[in-house]
TrEMBL record:
<feature type="domain" description="N-acetyltransferase">
    <location>
        <begin position="12"/>
        <end position="174"/>
    </location>
</feature>
<keyword id="KW-0808">Transferase</keyword>
<dbReference type="InterPro" id="IPR000182">
    <property type="entry name" value="GNAT_dom"/>
</dbReference>
<dbReference type="InterPro" id="IPR016181">
    <property type="entry name" value="Acyl_CoA_acyltransferase"/>
</dbReference>
<dbReference type="Pfam" id="PF13302">
    <property type="entry name" value="Acetyltransf_3"/>
</dbReference>
<dbReference type="GO" id="GO:0016747">
    <property type="term" value="F:acyltransferase activity, transferring groups other than amino-acyl groups"/>
</dbReference>
<protein>
    <submittedName>
        <fullName>RimJ/RimL family protein N-acetyltransferase</fullName>
    </submittedName>
</protein>
<dbReference type="InterPro" id="IPR051531">
    <property type="entry name" value="N-acetyltransferase"/>
</dbReference>
Length: 176
């Protein structure tokens, strides 16, 4: 079992999810604005529960995973993100950690995803030392495309996930 490291940024604490976070997590994923470009359909409470407990499973099985992004002042959920192996069947993702992120709408437009994911990628570069990190973004998701560009991801191809086209991006490890 791998402990989920705590990472602090100026405004956020990236940490393990705890049971007290679940209501806010389920509420975030039930919001159609959050899922518009992430699967397209709001998640049921059961789907959210499965993904919520899966954050711990990623760490236990892969040695990396998703963090809960919490406000440093209040410890309230802002969003989630990190690195994963979701076995999507997309050739571009094979053997590489996949970055992903989602933030509750009340926190959009504040630069929090970029702040959190910079910390995640710094951790990846210094601890995980994977040769590269990849991510997928549905076409038209301008906000995530901007975040990916700020983080140094460049487009490398296309794929499909659950029948939906996705663009695949890569970012080489800064330590290689």
């Amino acid at each position: 079992m791998t402990d989920i490291p705590v990472i602090e940024t100026e405004r956020l604490r990236l940490r393990a999810p705890v049971l007290a976070d679940f209501e806010a997590y389920a509420s975030m994923w039930a919001d159609e604005r959050v899922t518009a470009f992430i699967g397209g359909t709001p998640r049921t409470r059961n789907e959210s529960w499965t993904r919520f407990i899966g954050m711990h499973g990623l760490w236990a099985l892969c040695g990396f995973g998703y963090w809960l992004f919490a406000d440093r002042r209040t410890d309230a959920l802002v969003g989630v993100g990190g690195l994963a192996n979701f076995e999507r069947g997309i050739a571009f993702l094979e053997g590489m950690p996949e970055a992903g992120w989602a933030v509750a709408p009340d926190h959009w437009g504040q630069g929090l995803v970029t702040e959190a994911m910079r910390a995640v990628l710094t951790w990846s570069d210094t601890v995980l030392k994977a040769p590269a990190v990849r991510c997928i973004i549905e076409p038209g998701h301008g906000a995530s495309e901007k975040v990916a560009a700020k983080l140094g991801f460049i487009p490398i191809g296309q794929g499909a996930h659950a029948g939906t086209p996705v663009n695949v991006y890569a970012r080489p490890c800064a330590m290689v």
